[in-house]
Amino acid sequence: MVVLKILIRNAFRNKLRTTLTIFGVAIAILSFGLLRTVVSAWYAGVDASSATRLITRNAISIIFPLPLSYKDKIRQVEGVKTVSWGNWFGAYYIEEKNFFANFCVEPVSYLELYPEFVLRLDARRAFLNDRKGCIAGRKLAEKFKWKVGDNIPLKGTIYPGTWNFVLRGTYKGRDKTIDETQFFFHWDYLNETLKKTAPGRADQVGFYIIGVSRPDLAADVSTSVDRMFQNSYAETLTETEKAFNLGFVAMTEAILTVIQVVSLVIIIIIMAVVANTMAMTTRERIGDYAIMKTLGFGGREISILILGESLVITLTGCIIGILLTFPVARIFSQELAIIFPVFNISSETLYLDLSAAVVVAFAAALIPTRRAIRIRIAEGLRRVG
Amino acid sequence: MEHKPPIAEIRNLHKSYRRGELIVPVLHDITFDIADGEFLALMGPSGSGKTTLLNLIAGIDKADSGVIRIGGTDITALSETELARWRADHVGFIFQFYNLIPVLKAIENVELPLYLSGLTAKERREHAAMALKLVNLAHRMDHYPRELSGGEQQRVAIARAIVTDPAILVADEPTGDLDRVSAEEILGMMERLNHELAKTIIMVTHDPRAAQRARTLRHLDKGYLNDGRS
User: Fold this and answer.
1) Domain parsing of chain A, residue ranges
2) Tens-place pLDDT, residues B155-166
3) Which domain does B140 fall in, by range?
4) Which residues contact A103 (CB under 8 A, 6 or more apart)?
5) pLDDT digit string (tens) for B143-182?
6) pTM (2 d.p.)
7) Cross-chain Cβ contact B116/A296 below 8 Å
8) CATH number of B169's domain
9) Rg (chain B; Cα; Å)
10) Are A377 and B95 a contacting pair at CB < 8 A?
11) DSSP A54-69
């Protein structure tokens, strides 16, 4: 089709301008894609939540503990299949900058509740049999070059002192949405040490994780658990794992809103840049369009020429931007693994990139197309020469 | 001898342009006929309205009032879409600045009007090649306009104008941007199209030498047709 031939050749008629516009679109799409991925990364924990897991914490705040004795009572609630518990340990490795998520957990029930943490059988056995043993996510072990059998000293902040662990295995995520930067060790190790060094802090649990047999039991089990400890000195708040994780996201909602606004602003700016390019090209080619109209071509062909050129420029920039997003996101993922343990470009982000590019192309071509269609042939021909 | 009806009948044509608040009359009550197979030159000083008249006859501008009947069709009554179709079928255009599409090769420029004709790609290519051969440019068909001289570009424009075999060719200062040798060549080619292919040619020109090649000469002055035809 001649119109297609003309529009593609037109798109690269002014090479410098087209290249700069494509570069601008590519950078905008790269920025937009990265910002969208940051937003997705923020919700990674929420997305990875299970509908059959509930979290029970102190009703006042997560920083207040619950008695260990609650575990037996919770187990008796109808619908409860498994109960595990743990504490946020909050230690770092050698230097404060080497901070990562570390928890002490009851390992047997915990690994049963989190089948998405894939651990080799021999590593699992070694971990369960060694009270000072620990497991780490694959990415975390790679970051610090830990190998199985290594001694790992962590400096406590909530529980002071240096705590030594032996790495018994590294887990992998069942899929790429699973955080592979966490560190787990035996709750008993912490508790027994506390019994000797700070007995007042022993037998205290940061949170319980309750596994229910079916997702539809979650509401009833939550109500039953919380009712059981009503009016006690440590009342509980039980919610689904998703709601629990969303609570953390909500604390940073303002930052997320800013990121989303910035990503929108980027699209608006690039729309203005492409619109400017299309306005200039259309003004330069008004004589060509007048000639085509003279020869009998109609508004449809002229619209295809301008919209098509806008699409060629914008989609070329978009594809380059998307291709750049992958290596840049990989670098982000490596450098910021602790802040964003799951930093994957979702297919939704790619669709948004493409949709944004198409919207920009059409919006930018709208006014120039209208002008080119409406211009009188005689007036257009006067612009030639 | 059989009397052939005129190919164009122009009756009481009026045209004015609006410049801001000001209405500038350009053509006043123009009435004349153009015989089938005529080679007509329209002359007149700048601003006399000759290009406007040519544009109206060619259907690329609209009159304020009056009738233009070409080959029996009242083109003033046609819609924009119908007029576009009519132009594609009946009129070939030759402009002062050639008006070729710069991103298309010579043969692609000549093929351009044929995309509206329903011909196959092969047929289009054959027709375009033949038109280029007629203007002695078969050897330059794969060149872009920027690679051709002014005379060659105008010959491509002539090939584009005749490729659909239109009844009428309109030429607006076809030699205005050419040197003398190239201008003679283009005028000779137009004469041949008129004599050998019986094309009706309406040419606007400033150049008396170009006007001499026409069979009929009409003068426009301040929007009025001077009846002292030659």
Assistant:
1) 2-44+253-382, 60-234
2) 999 999 999 999
3) 8-226
4) A86, A87, A88, A89, A182, A183, A184, A185
5) 999 999 999 999 999 999 999 999 999 999 999 888 889 9
6) 0.78
7) yes
8) 3.40.50.300
9) 18
10) no
11) EEEEESS-TTS-EETT
pLDDT digits (tens, 9 = 90+) for B122-142: 999 999 999 999 999 999 999
Residue B106 in domain: yes
Number of domains in chain B: 1
Burial class for B13, CB neighbours closer than 10 Å (0-12, 13-18, 19+): buried
* Interface residues on B facing A, Cβ-Cβ cutoff 8 A: 52, 55, 60-61, 81, 84-85, 87-89, 93, 95-97, 99, 101-104, 108, 111-113, 115-116, 160, 177
Indicate the SS3 state at residue A82.
strand
B116–A378 CB contact, under 8 Å = no
Instruction: For chain B, give the longest Cα–Cα distance.
Output: 53
Residue for token pair 């596994």: A211
Asked if residue B12 is part of any domain, the answer here is yes
Enumerate the β-bridge partners of residue B156: none
Beta strand A161-173 with A133-137 is parallel
Residues B139-147: contacts with CB within 8 Å, 24+ apart? B140/B106, B141/B105, B141/B106, B141/B107, B142/B105, B142/B106, B142/B107, B143/B105, B143/B106, B144/B102, B144/B103, B144/B104, B144/B105, B144/B106, B145/B98, B145/B100, B145/B101, B145/B102, B145/B104, B145/B106, B145/B109, B146/B102
> Any residues with CB less than 8 A from the CB of B187 and at least 6 apart, and which?
B174, B175, B210, B213
Q: What ipTM was reported for this prediction?
A: 0.90
